[in-house]
Every structure is written in structure tokens, then in C-alpha cells.
Amino acid sequence: MQINSTTIRLTFLGGALGTLARFGFFVTFGDLPSVIFVNIIGSALLGLFSGNKKYDTDTHNAFWKTGFAGGFTTMSGFASLIVLYAQGIGPVTFALTLVITGVGLGAYWLAFVASRAASRKGDA
Description:
This protein is mainly α and 124 residues long. It has five helices and no strands.
């Protein structure tokens, strides 16, 4: 990605909107569900954006991938909840962490494959 004033502005705007959307999830669902939802949905969004080569431009990547998805997802929130819940429910937390991470990876992969198939279908 070429770094210039346009990509910086788009990254900032996307990040602000992604953070605002994450806050909406937090207000609606609370701590734990919102962190799980935004990370899984964010993974799917990244897969969707990455699968279609037609949208692989600097401006699109700056706004949607780096900005919006980066502001929407929260690794630090996920990590802090893991630590907090590990104190309360112990080893179960490790298993749940693996499940949530696996679901996120699966969401990315499914969205990537669907987006790639749709872009190939559109090329035909």
C-alpha cells in the first residue's frame, strides 16, 4: 500500500467508523458477547475484502481492511477478557479461546472463498 495523505485519511476515517460500530455492539450486547461478535464479524469482513481482487486497491485496503476492520476488531479486548475469565473459570477459558479463534478463522475462510467465487463468476 502506498502511504500518502489520501490513504492516511481513509485509514483514519475507516478506523473511526469501525470503532464506532464496535461501540454500538458493546452498548447492545455487553462486554463478552460484543468482543466475540466483532472479532468474528471482523474476520469475515477481512475475508470478504481480501477474496475479491477487483477491490484490491490502496484506497479500498486503507479504508476497509486497515481502517474499518482494524478499528472494529479488538485483540486487546479479547486478550483482557481471556485473562479475566481465566481467573474465574480456569482451564475452560483456554478451550473457549481456541473455539472462538477457530470460528474467526473459519469465518475468514468462508467469506474469502465466497468472495473469490463471486468475483470469478462476475468475470465470466
